[in-house]
């Protein structure tokens, strides 16, 4: 085993921090392919030591789809791109409630309500708060909002409505962001995360890997997340959508994607590391290896505009790996 990995393993077993510095992360990322299994074993050790609780699941609903004014190069819902993505207005409360009930019936821990666009209109925002109040009364499931840019006033209202988590991805590092989106500033995303934290939300934020970023930029994103103090890192992997600027991009090889998971676990040993969009496309038959690489949760069911993994398949994977406890 490489000497760096031995040092990391010793830090894990002794309880020392940090497990991995940014410079060491870059060194680890550049180890030869023959070191991949050793990297995963050390990251898995970190998960077992620092996140020993049963792995969790979350599910989402694309509550309002399409016509987004932002020009994110990966996004099927951008009005700037020609895709086959569905376009529809905000779902009503009954539709959102049925999805929450479906997720709860499948032992999913958290329900994320996601809307397309920079931020909801006042009318849609009011409707979402009303829907959340009803879901909170009728379904036992954690509520997460993913509604774009956030103000302190809206954050307070979402908390009052029963949302306990706010999701807002940075997508990539500050240095790579201008290659991915030019319709809003990176600082606006950072401020949304800060607002959510100040409001008392559990904050879920990370990015998409496979956007043409370098390992240095992946580690840059990680350091930004550390500085922001996020609670959960949802790792997404590019699923190229025809009609978007990145539609012809190659998928990340599974071995490289697993290294991403491992580095994020070692750089964020106390946070949740959740595998989300692009899981089945990127990892294929190696999906269960994300837990060996340090993940402690997955997004189950469908994603925003693409198919995900069936509840029963994920439940079987959790049972086989001994990662799941029944929700109380």
Automatic annotation (TrEMBL):
Its EC number is 2.8.1.6. Homodimer. Binds 1 [2Fe-2S] cluster. The cluster is coordinated with 3 cysteines and 1 arginine. Binds 1 [4Fe-4S] cluster. The cluster is coordinated with 3 cysteines and an exchangeable S-adenosyl-L-methionine. Keywords: 2Fe-2S, 4Fe-4S, Biotin biosynthesis, Iron, Iron-sulfur, Metal-binding, S-adenosyl-L-methionine, Transferase. GO terms for biological process: biotin biosynthetic process. The keyword Iron applies. [2Fe-2S] cluster binds at residues 144, 204. Its cofactor is [2Fe-2S] cluster; [4Fe-4S] cluster. This is Biotin synthase. It comes from the Bacteria. Pathway: Cofactor biosynthesis; biotin biosynthesis; biotin from 7,8-diaminononanoate: step 2/2. Catalyzes the conversion of dethiobiotin (DTB) to biotin by the insertion of a sulfur atom into dethiobiotin via a radical-based mechanism. [4Fe-4S] cluster binds at residues 68, 72, 75. It catalyses: (4R,5S)-dethiobiotin + (sulfur carrier)-SH + 2 reduced [2Fe-2S]-[ferredoxin] + 2 S-adenosyl-L-methionine = (sulfur carrier)-H + biotin + 2 5'-deoxyadenosine + 2 L-methionine + 2 oxidized [2Fe-2S]-[ferredoxin]. SUPFAM superfamilies: Radical SAM enzymes. Residues 50-279 form the Radical SAM core domain. Belongs to the radical SAM superfamily. Biotin synthase family. One of its GO terms (molecular function) is biotin synthase activity. InterPro entries: Aldolase_TIM, BATS_dom, Biotin_synth/BioAB, Biotin_synthase, Elp3/MiaA/NifB-like_rSAM, rSAM, rSAM_sf. NCBIfam families: bioB. It holds the Pfam family BATS.
